[in-house]
Each structure stands twice: as C-alpha cells, then as structure tokens.
Design brief:
By secondary structure, the protein is α+β, with helices and mostly antiparallel strands. 34% of the residues lie in helices and 19% in strands. The chain folds into five domains: 27 residues; 227 residues, 3-Layer(aba) Sandwich (D-Maltodextrin-Binding Protein, domain 2), CATH 3.40.190; 73 residues; 254 residues, Dipeptide-binding Protein, domain 3 (Roll); 40 residues.
Length: 650
C-alpha cells in the first residue's frame, strides 16, 4: 500500500512539475525592446544608439525644400495634401543599425507570450502632450479605432490583424491578434501613431485643417503660410528629450520647410544658399547642375554615401486586370523593349544599377539557382510554378546600349506570336479578334517622360501603340485607387525584415482593395502561401530563405518591367553642419546632425571675403562699362544727327 502511495506521490509531483514547466514556458516576458528575430542589440541599460553623438550641441536652423504644396496638417486621412512639421510619437521606435528592432518610446516596456498572439504595453508616466496633459491608455485605444475607421485606407489593412484592444491597468493596454506565430504583429502595433483623444473629440477628424494639431514629439509648428512655408521649433520641455532612444537626435532649434513647385527652382535655391540640405534624386542634375563655385570652394558639400538598405523594386507596372496583360508571355515580351543600358548611358550618366530583384541590394534577393532551404521550399510547389525557376537564374534583358535592340525585339516578337499576336499592316493585332495592341502609360511626373519615350519608341517598333498620359496628382491618385490604368511607374520599398506588408503588396486578397498596394492585381495561390511563410518565419535564416523563394516566384510572373536602383545617398549641404563619425547601414539622416557654430562662422567669413573681392573686381569694370556706354551714346548721337541732316537736305 505504501508503495502505491509512493508511486501516486511521484506521479503527482511529475504532473505538477510538468504543469509548472509549461506555465513557465507560457509566461509572457517583460521587455524594454523587441526584435523581429533574435535579441535586441542594445540591452536594458543602454544610454544611446551607436550612430549618434549623445552630447551633440542643440541649436541653429535647418532649412529644407519640399516639392509641391500643402493645404492641411492632418496627415492621417485621405483628404488634402498634408504639410510637414507635425510631431506625433509612437509606442515604440526603431533603431537604424538592426534589421528590425523596436525600443520603448511612449511605452516604457512591453510583454508578449512566446507565440506573440498578444502584446501588453506599459506607458511611461512622464509621456505628455504639448499641452501638458498625460498620454493615456484611452488615447492609445482611441487612436487605433479612429485610424482603422476614419484614417487612410492603409491603416485598415496594416492593423487588420488586431482584433481587440483593452485597458488592463492604469498605464497598461493590451492588443490581441487574430493569429498566432506572426512575429511582426507586436512590432507593427508599436508603430501605431498615438493621437490625443481629448483634442480631437471637439474637432472633425475626417476634415482637412490648417490648425496645427496637438502633438507629443520633439517639434511643434511655430508659424506657416499656406502653400509657402512651415517653421517647426523644438519643444523646450519635450518629455522624451532624455530617453536613450532620443539622445543625440532632433538637435536643431528650428526646421524650416519652404515649398516649391519645381525641382529645378529648388536646385537654384540650394546653390544660392536659400536652403541648407538636399538629397538629389535625379542623375542628370547630380552630374551637371552642381559645377558651381560654391561646390568647387567646398562651401556646398556634394557627397555620395554608400548604404546597405534594400532598395526594393521600382518598375513599369502592368495592370494584369486588363485583358492584354493577362498572359505572362506578353508581359515578358514587353520587357525586352526597355533598353536600360541606353538609358543609363545617355540619361543617367552611368550612375544606376539594373534592378533584378524585389529585394535588391540585400541578402534577401534571390541569386543564382535555388539551393538549400530555399530549394526545399520551392520543391513543394514544383508543377505549380514555372520550371525555369529551377533551371535558369532570373536575368533582366540587356542590350549593347546603342538604342536599337534588334535581338531583344526579335525575342519579343517570338513571345508575342506564341501568345497570339501578329503584325498586320505595321500594327500588332490579336490573331483571333484582330484587335490592335494598344495601351496607355500613366505618369504624374514630367521628369519621367524622357525615360518612358524611348521605351515607347521600341514598343512602336513591335507594332504596339503605347501612349504616354501625364496627369495631375489628384487625378493620378484617383485613377490608381479605381485601378483605371494600363501601366504606370511604381515602387515598393522594402526593409531588411519583410513581414505583414507583403500581404498588401502581392496577395490575392489585396488585388481588389484600393487600400492595398497590389497595383499589378496579382492573384497567385503560391505567392499567397509564400507570403504567409515569410510572415511566420521563426528565425533570420528561414526568413532569408523564404523571402528569396517569394522573390523568385514574383520575378517569374513578369508582373513588372524592372527599372533601376542606386546604392548611394546623393546629398548636398552647406558646410555649417556636423554629423557622427558612425554611419548606420541605412545611411545618414539629418535627425542625427547638428548645427556647427565654428563651421558656420568660417563659412560666413569665407563667403563674405569672396563677395568683397568680387565686388571690388566688378566696380572698375562697371565704371568702364558705364563710361563706354556713355561714349557710345555720345558718338551715336552725333552720327544720328548727321544722318538726320542729310535726310533733311535730301
């Protein structure tokens, strides 16, 4: 009997021990930060990020240029053109030297279970709005609900997996998700902009407004003139100025945003010293427009900074909802008409690299033939994906750069013929219906016309009637939202840690949603499954393999004609600023720069000295010029008088 009791006792102890272990495993962890995979780089006691100068001086003004106009300060709704300068904080904030890790900002800590099916944030006691009132759990709950129901369509999609939000303590708020194992969801919720409930309760959130809204960040709008300029000033009693995540950042006392309607005018303003900093986005301008004394003297710095961020995909995007673009052979054929090598040599001064991946400039890009874990993933879909994925590495069509890609056009003709298109009377027509192949390329930027027109010329050589349509911004946005386009230029930015946003980019569910960014209208069950695999990746190694597999299948669908990318930041700035010696992988940002009084004084002295020399040199010349003009005038007077006399005599 005693033996039985001992056995029963041991069993009870074992069961209790197992239950205790299970409970310990399931217990949520309280953290100062959360990484998508692995552990955060910076521990709980860190004092600042490595890429900032924690004791950077604060003061001075940074003057920036913005192309366009503004008529509202509410950037969270689909109406209006929002202006710069508003300052709203989030629960967490990202570091710039990790693939995807977020640290506490409004939230001092967070708790998540192992399956990441929910997250609890504990708000900081010191977090305040600019009017001095505390940021509360009610603000957090109201922000999520308002953005999902009244905000930009993007928010409904991005926070669609959040099925519950509740107050679980005076400073604690819990978000519950519709799925388990989605490692990114706690980080996505950490990016939620927190808006002041008490401020918006007396205002219509869905209307545009030129009343600067109440914020919580390091800057507030001090003054503005609609459509012309905005001046933001640093908040002296900003509650988060001493947080480790903010040390060495937001160092300017004032930031001025001047609005211009044309990039050419912005460049002139920069060279004249009216603005302080510009990141140049045009290769031609970078090559030709800055050969000026200010650059040669070293006053206006012109630098290229290498970065290692994924450059994503910029491309001519097919609308596969259109009948003419439903056949992949047609889409592949038209890609042979884009002569990148000619454009790079003649338009871009050889500055760009051809894009051959949706995750270019990163380890996530597919390369060579699939192998290892990536091959294992793709093998599951053999028979449902093109066989060339296993036999032929993707390579964008290339040319000799002469502008007459005969071999490429022959290849295009073959593909088009296989898809049922033939040339009749110098026009490409459908062999069954006789309908001509014609479509429109929609543009919003005049600068892209010079790039698209050579593409159109080669399409005409194929017998295709491709027309370029330039529209204003409002019409452009409305046409995209209603899928009223054949082809347009678009881009998908990517991070080092892709996740839930991929659903918005590529999945069948997103293809018919104007809130998503599946511009091409892709509906492919294999892509849907691969996107879910990327989202559920348990570690970095599997994320890389799964993303490469997704990349390869996307490329094999020929949904776009890939454009190009740049692995450099092209920046220009007047030499009165300094920045940290360490540059993160993502490149530099003026968020970590500061106004350098010593440099500014030297620059002012050198420019003043140069101005005096120039004026002194010009003065004698001006005198001689005036004297010369006077002399010419006198001589001219006497000559004319003599002519008049002769005419009178005659």
């Amino acid at each position: 009997m005693s033996g039985q009791r001992q056995i029963i006792g041991l069993l009870l102890i074992t069961i209790l021990s197992a239950l205790s272990s299970s409970s310990a495993l399931a217990a949520p962890r309280v953290m100062h930060a959360i990484a998508m995979h692995g552990a955060p780089k910076y521990g709980p006691g860190f004092t600042h990020f490595d890429y900032v100068r924690p004791d950077a001086p604060r003061g001075g003004t940074m003057r920036l240029a913005v192309n366009g106009t503004f008529d509202s300060f509410n950037s969270f709704i689909p109406r209006g053109n929002p202006g710069a300068g508003t300052s709203i904080e989030t629960l967490l904030t990202s570091s710039a030297d990790e693939p995807f890790t977020e640290y506490g900002l409004i939230a001092e800590s967070l708790e998540v279970p192992d399956d990441r099916s929910w997250v609890i944030f504990t708000l900081r006691r010191e977090a305040r709005w600019h009017d001095g009132k505390p940021i509360t759990v009610d603000d957090v709950i109201w922000s999520l609900q308002t953005l999902k129901t009244k905000g930009q369509p993007f928010y409904r999609f991005y926070y669609g997996s959040v099925v519950g939000v509740e107050k679980v303590g005076p400073r604690r708020v819990k978000f519950t998700f519709s799925e388990k194992g989605n490692r990114e969801l706690p980080l996505i919720v950490g990016q939620l902009p927190i808006l002041p409930k008490h401020y918006w309760e007396t205002r219509d959130f869905e209307r545009t407004t030129l009343e600067p809204p109440l914020g919580s960040g390091p800057y507030r709008i001090a003054s503005f003139e609609p459509g012309r300029y905005i001046i933001s000033e640093r908040v002296k009693d900003y509650w988060g100025k001493d947080l480790a995540v903010n040390k060495g950042q937001d160092n300017f006392a004032r930031i001025r945003y001047d609005y211009y309607r044309d990039d050419t005018v912005i460049r002139q303003a920069l060279k004249a010293g009216e603005i302080d900093f510009r990141e140049e986005n045009q290769a031609k301008a970078w090559a030709l427009d800055y050969d000026v004394p200010a650059v040669r003297n070293g006053w206006l710095k012109k630098e290229e900074i290498r970065h290692y961020s994924p450059t994503g995909m910029q491309a001519f995007v097919y609308n596969t909802r259109r009948e003419i673009f439903k056949d992949w052979r047609v889409r592949k054929a038209l890609s042979y008409a884009f002569d990148f090598e000619w454009a790079n040599k003649n338009l871009f001064f050889g500055q760009y690299t051809r894009t051959e991946s949706y995750f270019s400039n990163s380890e996530l890009a597919a390369r060579g033939l699939p192998s290892g874990k990536e091959l294992e993933i793709l093998e599951r879909y053999r028979g449902r994906i093109p066989e060339e994925i296993f036999t032929t590495p993707f390579k964008a069509p290339s040319t000799d750069g002469s502008g007459w890609p005969r071999d490429n056009l022959r290849t295009a003709f073959t593909l088009l013929e296989q898809a049922g298109w033939v040339v009749r009377d110098m026009k490409l027509v459908n062999v069954h219906t006789g309908k001509a192949f014609e479509f429109e390329i929609l543009l919003v930027s005049p600068a892209f016309e010079r790039i698209v027109l050579p593409f159109v010329r080669n399409l005409k050589r194929l017998g295709i009637d491709a027309r370029v349509r330039l529209v204003d911004q409002s019409q452009y946005i409305n046409r995209l939202r209603s899928f009223d386009f054949d082809m347009f230029v678009a881009g998908w930015g990517e991070s080092e840690s892709p996740g839930n946003e991929q659903r918005s980019f590529w999945t069948s569910a997103a293809a018919d949603s104007p809130a998503a960014r599946n511009y091409a209208g892709i509906k492919n069950p294999v892509i849907d499954e691969l996107v879910e695999l990327v989202i559920k990746a348990p570690d970095r190694e599997s994320l890389v393999a799964r993303t490469r597999a997704l990349d390869r299948v996307l490329l094999s669908g020929y949904y776009v004609v890939p454009n190009w990318h740049l692995r450099m930041q092209r920046i220009l700035y007047w030499d009165k600023f300094s920045r940290p010696q360490v540059t993160p992988r993502t490149g530099t940002s003026i968020s970590y720069w500061w106004f350098d009084e010593t440099k500014a004084a030297r620059l002012e002295a050198e420019r003043s000295a140069e101005s005096r020399v120039v004026n002194k040199a010009r003065t004698p010349g001006l005198g001689l010029t005036l004297a010369g003009l006077l002399g010419i005038g006198v001589v001219g007077f006497f000559v004319l008088r003599r002519v008049w006399r002769r005419m009178g005599t005659t």
